[in-house]
Amino acid sequence: MAGFTYEKNLPHQERAIESVLAVFDLVHLNTKVQNDENPLIEFAGSLKTDNLQKIQQANNVADIALSHSNVLDISMETGTGKTYTYTKTMFELNRELGVFKFIVVVPTLSIKAGTKNFLQSTSLAEHFRKDFAGQYGETEIELYVVESQKNKAKKAFMPSEIVRFVQAEDKQKIHVLLINAGMINSDTMAGKDKGNDGSRLIKDKFSVPFEALASTNPFVIIDEPHKFPTSKKTWENIQKFNAQFILRYGATFNNQFENLLYRLSAIDAFNDDLVKGIRAFTEQIDGDNGERIKLIDLDGKEATFILDKQAFKLSKGENLNRIHQAISDLFVSEMNKSVLVLSNGIELKKGDTINPYSYSDTVRDKMMRQAIRKHFVLEKELLTRNGGRIKPLTLFFIDDIAGYRDEKNQLSGSLKTVFEQMVKAELEHRLQTENDEFLRQYWQTALNDIAKTHGGYFSQDNSDKDDKIEQEVNEILHDKETLLSLANPRRFVFSKWTLREGWDNPNVFQICKLRSSGSETSKLQEVGRGLRLPVNEYMARVKDHAFFLNYFVDNSETDFVKKLTDEVNSAVVKPIVFTALTDELIKKIQTAYPDVSKKQIRNQLADLTDDDDVFLENGFAETKKLFPKAFESSGSLKDGKIKGSGEKVEKVKMRIAKYDELKALWETINQKALLQYKIKDEDEFLSLFIRYLKENADKFTATGIRTVQNKIRVDNGLLSATETRSLNDEVFEPINTLNYREFLLKLSQTALIQMQTLHKAFFALRDVLEISKFLNERTIHTIKAGFDRWLLFNSFNAFEVGFSRVGGSVHPTKFTDNQGNALTEVNASDLGTQFDSGSPLAEFLFESVFFDSELEHANITKNQVKEVIVFTKIPKNSIKIPVAGGGTYSPDFAYIIKTSSGDRLNLIVESKNVPDNQSLRSEEQQKIKHAEKLFNLVASDMKLVFKTQFEKDEIVNIIKNAQKQR
């Protein structure tokens, strides 16, 4: 089976990588070291602090104070690809600085196992070798995993993997030592093992592993930094690696930052659709009047509980159903005078309470039945979709391990027996009405052998010799690809919280907590096992849809959604409320709207301030409406990203009869179009490229090494050297990772420009732009992105564009199936992120109201126009109009209008929630021009008008003007 297909250059990951690399801009590399050691990174003067400040300002984290330590912090939310990000960072640091030895520190064995599988995967190695146009050459990771030495009698003086890592000299590889916290704190690492008498040495110097590793000048990478508090022993031992830099990657820092470079918060991850949204299912139990069983006393032999003022004394082995009949099978396992352990592993201390209904088989069965039913609904949706099937997984957390694992005692009411009966019943029910051929076969295979549909992993399995269990565990823990194969019927996974940390699978779509975890943990960490965006049958990440994770909890967690939402929003920096139009506020606006001048801002806000620039009543609120993007970073979690199961539906029904009225226009605007650059010949293109380079020559920043000068003099008859450093007088040596020909070839392949044209341009500008200083990958990316933007901003000015339409079937579309038949319902998320439970206008194509702005909301619910036959919101990414520079654009609404002469007018509307055209960013203005150009072409075949609607434009006036235009 194919391995995972990794996606390169994801913006949120690239920003984290670039932030780390920027720390080392203009550093000096001291390469006078041993062959098995990293080069030494040296900063001149205040260079390090200057670089850190620039990075923080660029990433809007300047509110976090810097320190003088060697620690660099990268904060990325769970599910956004931290491991991949630090792995690519290692490749980049190796390519740019020659760093080839890294120590990766993880907190637990489970995270260690996952990291090992990731770093050793063939698909990852192929990704870096093939997907980056050869920029990493044949460089690959050589992994050294430090394991505990089991046989104490035969323990080596030092783990062999440490010896191999320290002695490695092959700079064509990236050498990575993987070690967990427990191993770091072991006697082995401190050189105190009985087998280590100090007589055997590495490099003829070192008998202590810490000292040997420190000699390599390593870079240390820490995963999950909150597990390594700086006041504890593990952090103290990490310092013994004597790392040049420590890079900490995690979602949780508990506000204990050192030098924060980049922050991708949970808010960003949810709002930017980098992870799944969350839907919670909570059991509301009739008869639960808040009853709780409280442990009030322990004497080591008896435990005293109280319920409704009545006391109950229980000894070891006694069942808690003596206290409450809802409890099915829960007894006292162990106790002393301070702690009691229940049979499910939960520890209770005096004063702790439990919810009796959380231990009811009735509640368990209801939750399990609902999760199974929802799972097969997901299979129906995800295994019949276009663009590659997605196999969903459901994860059950349980405490009744015996009821699941004990093959010899599977009683009629045991968890495993009940579960398999439910799966069987659900499959038989669905097969009665299912017509999809693939789905019928997939479900019939499951029905033929229900036992193969599920598997489990529990900590006790590590010592289990059963081959079947061993295969299950290996597949669940280490072989994600096999678990995701459609040829594998396993889709349900059972565990007892063992999988909560260090394990995840992108296709977990449901988590069902059949029993409480027994402790108050981060809700975000609990759902983290299922937050990643899914992959399809080709192992490619799917991001063109708003996916949700279903989370099932019992009634003891009715506040789950509130707690999770509060936790996510607690990280939001509270917005500043400005009382006056200050330079700070103007700068904030210009950051979001770079094309708006200071004078334009003051003119637009003149009526909102007094003579001293102090805001009048509601002045700041109006300012936020005029420049909404300037204040987005202070926003909180978008509505609908985390929600209860009773909230918003995921599908919206289409009024199919109305689609027939829209069909001709819908098929026309879904017809593919090709963008044509009306550039006469290669010479004219050359002149345009030269213009771009001239206008942007000052934006190229050379990367390289500052050579520190040494002044040599005679002192007391001997030569001596005095190192002299001056920020204004350092010799600059550019780092050229490519020769000129390689640079031209890669730039040609990336930017799709002929090599000869590139050479002519650089030669013509040799006095303005000395390209020999910039022969590296960063320059290639800068030119590609910069020229694409330049083409967009200068289209219709420096050159013309045109369109040609491509024939062929347009189906399936967001509204139709492969045959062109209207769908009965579409994804609500494609129509908008906000929901109104009110009714739309009668002419609207859908039965429910989804929108992205108040202007769209008004179009859908207000200002009915009798001439409108039908209108619709155009789904996101459904109509992709190509624009100069390689991007796309999609308008917002489509209308069919009956004119006074009885004809039909087709109207396409772009809704912009800003005052006027001058308030639009240049990029948006240019994209709208492209749309006008294309729709003018379409208008030659049908009566069609394209209009832009601004904040104060009512749709009735837009329609009137459109009718006049025709």
Short summary:
The chain is an alpha/beta fold and 966 residues long.
Mean pLDDT: 85
Percentage of helical residues? 25-40%
Low-pLDDT windows of residues = 704-733
CATH level 1 name of the largest domain: Alpha Beta
Superfamily (CATH H level) name of the largest domain? P-loop containing nucleotide triphosphate hydrolases
Largest sheet, described in full? 7 strands, parallel
How much strand?
15-25%
Q: How is the CATH topology of the largest domain named?
A: Rossmann fold
Spatial shape = globular
Q: What class do helices, strands and sheet pairing give?
A: alpha/beta
Describe the protein.
The protein has 966 residues and is of the alpha/beta class. Helix 1 crosses helix 3, helix 24 packs across helix 27 and helix 25 packs parallel to helix 27. The chain folds into six domains: 242 residues, Rossmann fold, CATH 3.40.50; 67 residues, no CATH class; 209 residues, 3-Layer(aba) Sandwich (Rossmann fold), CATH 3.40.50; 52 residues, no CATH class; 183 residues, no CATH class; 91 residues, no CATH class. Strands 5-6-4-7-8-3-9 form a seven-stranded parallel β-sheet, with helices on both faces. The chain has a seven-stranded parallel β-sheet with strand order 19-20-18-21-22-10-23, sandwiched between helices. A four-stranded antiparallel β-sheet has the order 13-12-11-17, with no helix packed on it. The chain is built from 30 helices and 39 strands. The radius of gyration is 32 Å and the shape is globular. The chain starts with 10 loop residues before the first helix and ends with a helix.
